[in-house]
Design a protein that fits this description.
CATH topology: Alkaline Phosphatase, subunit A
CATH architecture: 3-Layer(aba) Sandwich
Number of strands: 14
Order of helices and strands: HHEHEHHEHHEEHEHHEHEEHHEEHEEEH
Number of domains: 1
Strand content: 15-25%
Radius of gyration: 21 Å
Largest sheet: 8 strands, mixed
Shape: globular
Distance between the termini: 40 Å
Number of helices: 15
CATH superfamily: Alkaline Phosphatase, subunit A
Length: 445
Amino acid sequence: MKIIQKLSLGIFAVSILISCGKGTKKETESVSSKAQNQPNIVFILSDDQSWTDYSFIGDENIETPRIDQFAKESLTFTRGYVPTPLCSPSLASIITGLYPKDHGVLGNDKVYDRVKGNRKESQKNRAEAYKPVISAFEKQTTLPDMLKEKGYLSFQTGKWWHGNHKIGGFDYGMTHGNPKRGGRHGDFGLTIGRKGLDTINSYVDVALKEKKPFFLWYAPFLPHRPHNPPSRLYEKYKKKTDSEHLAKYWAMIEWFDETCGELFDLIDDKGLTENTLFVYVCDNGWKQDPEKSGYMKVSKRAPYDLGIRTPIMYKWAGKITPKMDTETIVSSIDMIPTVLDILDIEKPENLPGINVLDEKELSERKGFFGEVYAHDFDTIENSMFYNMAIFPPYKIIVPDPVRKKDEVIQLFNIDKDLFEENNLADSNPLKVKELQEKIKNFREK
């Protein structure tokens, strides 16, 4: 309950005007002037971490000093969301700005024949089944594609599910994506952070040498399993809990925090901080099971906020005024529209997100949607688990009548019931009907 109390009181002082974005003539001129000095763009993506698991949010066990400082320096939305609670489709939404139903990546794997006792054969089957997914995704327009018109170099590090990094429009990347060489969700990219940031340092030097702005995708395999933190951190957290699994998970989060600090320092040491836009998000939630090395069912792959909620932060020193926003809801689908607006690039009509720096757009947007599909997916019709509509104060979870036929519709007041413990569906039939209609219209677009 301490988390709830801290959120309701506000975490830091709230002040603020946004100094870039649409609106006044002065603001518009500020945006257009960036053509002469375009910011570098850094996306920082946590991997499998609950929205509650930061010390700046109120957790009293985990220490995240570098992210805490970053939050203070950013336009920070504590009520951010991703549209789906699983790595691959969530990351695909971040890089395209689209919902899973529109970019086509519904789960982590396409349905394939898992051969018991024969991992090599299973991997081969997985790779063959996933080929059409990669081919289809290659036709999507990604943020690196959109940035080319402004002369950006794009660099991929960390998690990447969709074949070679070039499939996503990146100029350089760590992921080869070849299944015959272990390619699935990042391969060589998964070493970033866990084994230092030398590759990022080299990439940034390439951009400096070519005198071009850059986009960096920093999606380390952290705090994702394997939960094998440095012993110094594990020993630190063992003193705080009797559960070795919690201690390891908490230590992984601080390890991730340290790598974020290394990244901030790297950018700063090159004199680039003032002209770099940093954006932070987590791909999906995770609630550590204290009894074993795994997650609780209410988090990853689940339609609850422990699966899809995340802080989302925007920092550009001197251009975006820091603010801790504990009320406004935003989504990862807003990240690309926000970047495009800053750079004065026309937003493609098919993008559903908004520019979160535009206070008018932000106030007019009433809600957005969520989707959960099978981990091993086929078609939308054959893989759907849940639809969600998030229109505060209400959030509805609608189970698929075929694959989740034994479950009931759930309606929560997420303004008051942060951990979705009190189902209000039976006592609010009109609200249920209204939100179901919104989902119907969303699915038909």
